[in-house]
Amino acid sequence: MPPAIETADLRKEYGDLRALDGLELTVEEGEFFGLLGPNGAGKTTFINVLVGLVRKTGGEARVFGNDVEADYRRVRDAIGLAPQEFNVDRFFPIREVLIHKAGYHGIPTDEAAERADEALKRVGIYDKREERFDWLSGGMKRRLLLARALVTDPDLLILDEPTAGVDVQLRRDLWELVTELNEEGTTVLLTTHYIEEAERLCDRVAIVNEGRKIAVATPEELKRRGTDTVSVALEPTPATAPALGPYAHGSALSGGRLDVRVDDGSRIAPQLLRDLEADGYEITDLEISRTSLEEVFVELTGRDDRTVTRSTAEERSNEESTAERGQPEGVV
Amino acid sequence: MWTVGSRALFRRELLRFLRRPKNTFMPPAITNVLYFAVFGVILGGRIDEIAGFEYILFILPGLIVLGTISNAFENASFSIFHGRWNEYIHETLTSPLSYAEMIAAYVGASAVRGLIVGLIIAAVGRLFVPISVANAAFLVATMVVIAALFAGLGIVGGLLARDFDDLTVMNQFVLRPLVFFGAVFYSLTILPTTWQYVSLLNPMVYMVDGVRYGLLGYSDFLELAPAAYAEIVPLASLAVLATLTALVVALDVYLFKIGFGLSD
To answer: Bridge-partner residues for A13, per DSSP?
Structure first.
């Protein structure tokens, strides 16, 4: 089977701005794949190239082996997209919106109605089926976007910041639902600002920045790429940091403890302890701090971007997320 | 072309205006009652017959054309622009519908709205004056063609518009003046020769004349054209309008294909 998504040298330019700068990505069928990057990294542009809302400037993009431009109908039929923006038909009750969407995908009206009911039940807003979009709460709107993506029974589900600005309960519900869908065989592409989300859900994560791929690996592998810190309390307390072997990328004395940066804390710790004991110190306490994905992200992208955070969703105000959604496509 | 997908979009487009008769059908009905009352009854009573027809009957085809094309245009341009404005046109654009299927649905539904308004205006006219259709097949063909033509132009308008004011400008400052100088309220035969020729540059003249020919059996062109060509003039007008409609619809499909006003 061809990969769910395969891009080569994918480029999108807006004048001098390179939103996608030779992006190469492969997402295998059945994967739960995360796309992590700060605002302006090119995540939404990438998604929009796949679904036809952005025309690529160069390179190739295929979905299940189909070219996104030459075979656009097959590509779009395979994709269910829950976008960042609330781009829902305001004229009709939400059940009808879903029936129409299923209809555009060639599903006859009766079956489309059944699917609409099923999708609304699955995301938990069936009792709101006769409401119009504008009357739904923020959380329900997010659920509806997911229902709309599901109503066509897609092989590839794309979720663009699905939990931006939603409360904890909804975030967990959405996580549970998309995990379930992935287990049922749906390939999932998730873009997120929340590193915790990527760590928790994704089989593999790509870190993108300025339209380029910085790294692709499992969250665990990525974390291994960062440095760990081994912190030891010594007796007697040294006046200066003792000399250590080449495994130490740096060391510092802080509050009576010696902090040593190493590649793999648990592997290096015994060696470090032996060396310190050989120097005549007694080890009274030991702590190993693993690198967080967030720290790896900062190291790889060279920026401590406040939009990429481990903090929980509820800490982000609705205004913030609204402002993000309001950004022109050209700079996303 | 007329697949489950395009039928779904066609249905959605129809329901959008059918469920809002107060916004879509009441205004042209009321406006035309006023037109008929003022121009037909109050003023028309003081105007002699034109080309052998009561004035109220003479202006009926033009009012039908005005209502049909402005509603077909307005519906298509609004639907496309509103969808762009609120981005819900993405629901269509990210679907597997072909661009031709999308245009068939948008143009078809907007043309239907124009034709319904045309029927409403004819019905209002019937309240004021008896009507008998002279050439039904020709009338239907002309009405369908011009409704589709302006639905197609409405799509171009909806793609070009940058805000809602642009839509108003197109309808009020382009369409209406052309229709009013399109021999709705007068016969070309009463104009000086120079103005008759100038009028021939106005595409609306052909539409109004075609509908008048279909409805009343009278055409200014039949009067003005050399006798040898007179019989083919209405059909030639219809053929040109049909060709123009096909070109505009092809342009719509092309604009969707290149994502004009729709994608970055």
So the answer is: A18
Domain count, chain B: 1
Chain-chain contact of A103 with B263 (C-beta, under 8 angstroms)? no
The interface predicted TM-score of the complex, written ipTM, equals 0.91
What CATH class is the domain A5-222+325-331? alpha beta
Give the residue on A whose Cα is nearest the Cα of B4: A106
Sign of CA dihedral B254, B1, A106, B20: positive
Contact A90, A132 (CB under 8 A): yes
Tell me phi and psi for residue B193, to 5 degrees: -55, -45
Please name the residue of chain A whose CA is at the shortest distance from the CA of residue B95. A76
Considering only CB atoms, B93 lies closest to which of A52, A92, A102, namely: A52
Q: Which residues of chain B carry a pLDDT beneath 50?
A: none
Kindly give, in sequence order, each residue whose CB lies less than 8 Å from that of residue A93, ignoring residues fewer than 6 positions away. Answer: A129, A130, A131, A132
Looking at A109-113, A147-151, B53-57, B149-153, which range is the least confident one? B53-57
- Mutation site for A-interface testing, chosen from B17, B94, B103 by largest number of A Cβ within 10 Å: B94
CA dist., res. B35 & res. A16, Å (int): 56
Domain boundaries, chain A: 5-222+325-331, 227-289
Identify the domain containing residue B168 by its residue range.
4-258
Best A64, A68, A91 residue to mutate vs chain B (most B CBs within 10 Å): A91
Q: Do B86 and A103 touch (CB under 8 A)?
A: no
